[in-house]
C-alpha cells in the first residue's frame, strides 16, 4: 500500500482526487425510474411471455430440463416471468443461440416446433434480451480504467523511450476476460506488480539516459586485431602471451579530447625471484611499470592513479614485457616467467557527455542547465514534454511541479543533472497516468449521460487497438487539431495504421487470442506417436496462421477468406510436413491450395493441433472451436457430473472414435451440445492430431461425413467448409463482437446490439473488407462515446 501511496504522491492532489473520483464512479450503479411508455412496453412483453414463450418452454423444453436431473444441469421450470428471464440474461442468451441453430429442442425429440413458433419465440427473446430503441440515444457503455498489460507496457516503453528490452517479461501474467488480456475489469494491480513497475522504471531510466558520472562511462575494449606485435608475442582472441621480451602496440582513435582512464588485465607464469614486469607507454611516453604478481589463472586489473588528458585523434598504447626468465632446472611450475595480457580498455572523456550518446538520451534531454538556464527551467521543459507523451495527453506545469522539485532536490544532493532527470522519468513511469489509461480527465464537466470521448483519448483508443502501444506524433497532432471525430480522418488513419509495421502487434495480440494461438506454445503432442513433431515445426505452424491473418489485414481482403481461402503461407519445412515439395527456403511464401483437402483457417495445422488431445484428435474440441470462432454460438459449460469421453468409451474399447462419440451422446446431459459439436469436429477427422492428412486411422477408414442439426449433410472437410461459408453473416457478427470487445476493452452488453448490428451491416455491405470492419468499429458509438450511466 505504501508503494501505491508513493505513486500517487508524485502527482498533484487535484489529479489524485480525480483518479479516485473516477474509480468511485465505476462502482456506482444507477437504476433510473421507468417512464410510462417504457412501463407499457414491459407490460406488453410480459403478456407475450405468458401467452407464447412460456408455453413454448413448457411444450418443448421442460421434458428434458426440469428438476435436479435436468439435462446439461439446465433446469428451466423456475422461469415463470419476463423478469426471471432477464435476471439470467447471459445464460438465456446462450439458450437462444441453441434454439436459433435448431439444436434445441434436438432433432430426435418427440415433438418439434414449427418454423413460425421458433421465429415468434426468437423475436420475443431478441426484443426482451437485447431490445434497444436504436432510433434514440443508445447507451455506448463505459470502460473501466485500464492498466497497460504486459505487451502494451513493452510496446509503450519502446515508442516512448526508444529502447526495446522487454521489461515486462518478468511481470506477473495478465488476467483474461471475455477471451482477451486487455479487459479493464480484470487487469488488477497486485503489490508484486507494483514492485516490478518500480524496478522496471529504474532500469528504463538508466538505459535511456546517460548519468554522466565516472561509473556511467563504459569501458571500450581495444580489440586484438588493433594490436601489432614486436618480439616473441603470440596474440589470440583470449590473450596476448609474452614468451620472451616483446611489445604489443594498440591504436585507439578518440573522437573527443578530454580525460581518459585506462585499465589492463594481466597475469604471469612465475619463475625466479622477481614478478613479471609490465611497462606501459602512451604515444612513446612512459606511464608506469607494473609488477605483475597475479597468476595467469587469476589475473589482476591494473589502472593508473589519475585520468590522462588526451587530444582528439589517434594514439598508440604500448605494453612491454621487460624481464623474461627461464631456468630449465627450476621447479616444474616455476621454470619459465611469462606475461599474459587478457584485456586492454579505456573510457572517457570523463566529465563531459560522449559524442555517441544513445538516441534516447538526446530525445529526452532537450535542455541542459547553464549560466542562462536553471535546473528548474530545464527539468520542467524536459518533464512536460516527456510527461505529455507518457500520459498520452497534454500536461500542465502544476502536474509536473512535484516531479520537477524531485529533480532539483536530487541535483542539490550532489548528483548530476542527468541523474536528476533519471529520477524524474522514474516518477512519471510509476504514475497511474502512465500505467493506466484514464479517461474523462479532459472533459470532466460535460453535461448529459452520453459524452464524446476526448480527442487525446480517441488517439489512445486507436493506437492501443491497432498497435498495442501509445499514439504516434501524427495521432497526437490530429488530436491537438480536434480532427479525430471526423469520419474521413478516422478512415484514413485506420488504413495508415494497419499498413504500419506496428500493426504486427494486432496480429499477435488480437489474432493470437481470438484464434487461441497463444495456447499452442503450451501443447506437446505425444512424442511416441508424432515423432516428426518439433518445437520448430510448432513455431512454423503458428507463423503460418499469423502470416495468413496479416495478409488478409494488410491486403484488405474479405474476412470470409478466414473460412474459405484457397491459399496459405509455408516455408520449406512446413510445406514438406504438408506434403508439398515445391516450396524451398526458410522464408514463408504464399502458396495456392487446390481446395480438395484444405481451405481457410480451420485446416491449418496450428488450429488442428490446438483442437486435439496429445495422443489423438478431438472432434469435440474441434467442433467447439468452430462454434465459438466461426459460428459465434459457443456451447454451454458441460455439467460437472458428465463423464469424460474415455470413461464412456470404456464400454466399447475397440470402437472407432465416431462410435465412441455416439455412445457418449447417449449419456443424459450430453446430446444437446454434442449433436452440434460432434458432426462439426468429425468433418475434419481426415486430419490427425497435428494436422496431417490421413485416409485411415489404424485399420479403420476415416469417415468425415456428417449431418448437422439444421438438416444439412456433408462428406469431408471441404463440403463442411462450404456449409460454414453459407453462415457468413453469423461469422461476421461473431467477428464483430470479438473485435469490438478487444477494441474497447470490455465485454459487449445487450445495449451494444445496435452498434454491433450497424457495424456488421455496414462492413458486409462493403464487400466484407477487413479495413471496413476495423473502420466501422472505430466509427461506432462504443468507440467514440462514453456514458455516465451504469454499464449494466
In round numbers, the mean pLDDT is: 88
The total count of helices amounts to 30
Task: Provide the structure class.
Answer: alpha+beta
Based on CA atoms alone, the radius of gyration comes out at: 35 Å
- Count every beta strand, where a strand is a DSSP E run of 2 or more residues: 21
Q: Helical amount among residues, as a percent range?
A: 40-55%
Any idea what the shape is? globular
Distance between the termini: 30 Å
- Let me know the largest β-sheet: 11 strands, antiparallel
Strand content: 5-15%
As residue ranges, the low-confidence spans are: 1-34
Task: Outline the secondary-structure elements.
Blueprint: H1 2-9, H2 13-27, H3 36-60, H4 82-86, H5 89-100, H6 115-130, E1 146-147, H7 150-161, H8 191-208, E2 220-221, E3 227-235, E4 240-254, E5 258-269, E6 276-282, E7 285-292, E8 300-303, E9 308-310, E10 313-321, E11 325-326, E12 336-350, H9 359-364, H10 375-391, H11 397-412, H12 417-429, H13 432-435, E13 436-437, E14 450-452, H14 455-466, H15 473-480, H16 487-499, H17 504-514, H18 535-554, H19 561-564, E15 567-570, H20 572-578, E16 589-592, H21 605-610, H22 619-631, H23 645-649, H24 657-665, H25 671-682, E17 696-697, E18 700-701, E19 705-707, E20 713-715, H26 717-725, H27 728-744, H28 753-765, H29 770-778, H30 781-784, E21 785-787
Antiparallel strand pairs: 1-13, 2-12, 3-4, 4-10, 4-12, 5-8, 5-9, 5-12, 6-7, 6-10, 11-12, 14-21, 15-16, 17-18, 19-20
Helix pairs in contact: 3-6, 5-6, 8-12, 10-11, 10-12, 11-12, 14-15, 16-29, 22-25, 22-27, 24-25, 27-28, 27-29, 28-29
Domain Cytochrome c: 40-129
Keywords: Heme, Iron, Metal-binding
Protein name: Cytochrome c domain-containing protein
